[in-house]
Amino acid sequence: MSEKNNTENNPCSRKKGAMLAYGVIQLSTSVVSALSLAAIALGFCSMKQEAKVFAECVEEIREGGKSAANAVRFCNGG
Question: Which of 61, 5, 31, 51 is nearest to 69 (CA)?
Fold first, then answer.
């Protein structure tokens, strides 16, 4: 009788291990996704700051009497 119980528990324990592995993989992919989204959000913040600096540069050059095209070219480094 105890041999019969051991054979019946064996497939169940395999399923438990598979489900545990699946859960760990699912959790780790969620963590990686969250970290990726945070990195993208921080990238947008720096882009917003660069755009602000660029706009200020263009305005400053335009106040000096140059055209908008010349101001943009100057602020782009050209």
Answer: 61
